[in-house]
Amino acid sequence: xxxxxxxxxxxxxxxxxxxxxxxxxxxxxxxxxxxxxxxxxxxxxxxxxxxxxxxxxxxxxxxxxxxxxxxxxxxxxxxxxxxxxxxxxxxxxxxxxxxxxxxxxxxxxxxxxx
Length: 114
Description:
- The chain is of the alpha/beta class and 114 residues long.
- The protein has 5 helices and 5 strands; from the N terminus they run H-E-H-H-E-E-E-H-E-H.
- The protein has helices spanning 2-7, 19-24, 29-35, 72-82, 98-110, and strands spanning 15-18, 40-45, 47-52, 58-63, 86-89.
- The strands form 2 sheets. A 3-stranded parallel sheet has the order 1-2-5. The chain has a two-stranded antiparallel ribbon with strand order 3-4.
- A hairpin with a 5-residue loop joins strand 3 (47-52) and strand 4.
- It is globular, with a radius of gyration of 15 Å.
- The N and C termini lie far apart (30 Å).
């Protein structure tokens, strides 16, 4: 990611960042949003939570925005300062009806994004 940041022309290339996968990869989501300030047009908002899989191993699973372990309020604050133009809510898996999940995420975000 550092190589892409350094080597790609900031006048011609913007970034799309996925909040959940940045965290799962062990990086600080807010750090990367701030580092990409002015070059981050789209932010994929995903929340994740730690669960146990069938073998008992701890893994990350997708959940509705606000139900997981990402600090969504801080992420939105950083994103607004960084000039993010578009937010995309994405949830790879849902526990029930996907429309219920997206409504829950949307309701949460409406309280944060002006």
